[in-house]
């Protein structure tokens, strides 16, 4: 019995298979190279983040979650909560909302219209000298008072830690190239006189928004630098959620 001869493979088919194999390996190599670059970029991003905050400053170890017995004498979970609340409130003042899902709140009025603080920055550039005087005496004054009320609790909390916090503010100013920030001088004022300086030198909506942006960035980096306080904050959050679930 004769066995049928095996047909010879078509050369065109072989070439297509070879090209597909080359293409597959090329894709795999490109993917592997891309993953390597992404991994390197992620590590660099983490390194950059660590350079931006205060982990290397010994002052932070005198603040982060330090307790004397059961009493906190540094930055603890409740302090983190209040700083996050202040960051949120400043965002609402400037943008009118803390997130996209919340309604916009325009708290500040001028000549019968309501504005966010961010909108006041644009408005004040269009005012006549007479309008500007009225704006400073009413709308801007109210916005500054609003900020003062919101930061009152935070200032009381850090009063005993102020010398340490001021050192971190100085480091933030240097690291972020913000040596001209009003935050630097504001923080160094004597306890209880901070807002005397504030009302004297923050004389426009633009200056107020910039001051708040600097404070928000500083507080964010301070929170990132306090892992012990953050851990306590998260524990309190979970405990609260458990009680109210």
Write the layout of secondary structure elements.
Blueprint: H1 11-52, E1 67-68, E2 71-72, H2 77-95, E3 108-110, E4 113-115, H3 117-124, H4 129-157, H5 162-175, H6 182-187, H7 194-201, H8 205-224, H9 227-243
Antiparallel strand pairs: 1-2, 3-4
Helix pairs in contact: 2-4, 2-8, 2-9
Question: Gist?
Answer:
With 245 residues, the protein is mainly α.
SSE-based structural type: mainly alpha
Please write the string of helix (H) and strand (E) elements: HEEHEEHHHHHHH
Strand elements, count = 4
Main beta-sheet annotation: 2 strands, antiparallel
Which residue ranges are poorly predicted, with pLDDT under 50 across at least 5 consecutive positions?
Answer: 1-7, 21-52
- The count of domains is 2
- End-to-end gap: 82 Å
Q: Mean pLDDT across all residues, rounded? A: 77
Offer a few descriptive terms:
mainly alpha; disordered N terminus; 2 domains; two-stranded antiparallel ribbon; 245 residues; single chain
Task: Describe this entry's structure for a reader.
This protein has 245 residues and is mainly α. The chain has 2 domains: 8-52; 58-243, no CATH class. It contains 9 helices and 4 strands, in the order H-E-E-H-E-E-H-H-H-H-H-H-H. It has a two-stranded antiparallel sheet. Strand 1 (67-68) and strand 2 form a beta hairpin. Mean pLDDT is 77; it is low at 1-7 and 21-52.
